[in-house]
Amino acid sequence: DGGITQSPKYLFRKEGQNVTLSCEQNLNHDAMYWYRQDPGQGLRLIYYSQIVNDFQKGDIAEGYSVSREKKESFPLTVTSAQKNPTAFYLCASSLFNYGYTFGSGTRLTVV
Amino acid sequence: QQQVKQSPQSLIVQKGGISIINCAYENTAFDYFPWYQQFPGKGPALLIAIRPDVSEKKEGRFTISFNKSAKQFSLHIMDSQPGDSATYFCAASMLQGGSEKLVFGKGTKLTVNP
């Protein structure tokens, strides 16, 4: 079955630590996205990538970094510069103008 | 101009009732309007979508009504069931710089009481 796989499902980060969230898709979609979801805030765009080796900042990119070395993979690194990283992170991919397919999310908690 | 305004923030409906969620947008460049359903701890899933050349689209108990002149669209859930209890997001999409850009409303938490 085609889809998007996010791992891990739960992640705990210590203060000052970088962590990487994985996102893999086998839908052959060109575009991939990372969103952050906080209660009452909806979905806010962190980064997106239209093609391999290219990505753009979204609305809340500060404290995050991404890479797109393969079409299937779009990992997100939450750096120590992100002061409030506790949130639910969602990865999505899209085929040209047909809406997004989302992964099941990673819940990140600072401990 | 990039915003999609969604209301209400929360909605409680009795089983068998009609749930109605409304969204409004400003940017007339939007050309695709999907609705997503999200259960707790899960990612959003595409529920139903419409393009501005039609005024209504129905899939089972779910209907989108679209008013292009008013720049508004709404989701109607007929015969609401407890299993419909979830958060619903409206969205609007347009092509920008060669890629699709999806703008989300802030969501509506629907509770259907048995």
Describe the structure.
The complex is a heterodimer of chains A (111) and B (114). Chain A is mainly beta and 111 residues long. Chain A is 0% helix and 53% strand. Chain A starts with a strand and ends with a strand. With 114 residues, chain B is an all-beta fold. In chain B, strands 2, 4, 5, 9, 10 and 11 form a six-stranded mixed β-sheet that branches. A five-stranded antiparallel β-sheet of chain B has the order 1-3-8-7-6, with no helix packed on it. Chain B is globular. Chains A and B meet through strand 5, strand 9 and strand 10 of A and strand 5, strand 9 and strand 10 of B.
Mean pLDDT of chain A: 92
Helix content of chain A: under 10%
Mean pLDDT of chain B: 93
**What's the order of the H and E elements of chain A?**
EEEEEEEEEEE
- Largest interface, and how many residues on either side? A-B, 22 and 23 residues
Question: How far apart are the termini of chain B?
Answer: 39 Å
The biggest sheet of chain A amounts to: 7 strands, mixed
Anisotropy-based shape of chain B: globular
Summed up, the helix count of chain A is 0
Q: Please, how many helices of chain B? A: 0
- State the total count of DSSP E strands of chain B: 11
Q: In what range is the share of β-strand residues of chain B? A: over 45%
Radius of gyration of chain A over alpha carbons? 13 Å
Q: Mind telling me the C-alpha Rg of chain B?
A: 14 Å
What kind of sheet is the major sheet of chain B? 6 strands, mixed
Query: Uncertain regions of chain B: pLDDT < 50 for 5+ in a row?
Result: none
Number of strands of chain A: 11
Cα distance spanning the termini of chain A: 36 Å
> Which segments of chain A are poorly predicted (pLDDT under 50) over 5 or more consecutive residues?
none
Question: Into which percentage range does the β-strand content of chain A fall?
Answer: over 45%
Q: Which structural category do the helix and sheet elements of chain B fall into? A: mainly beta
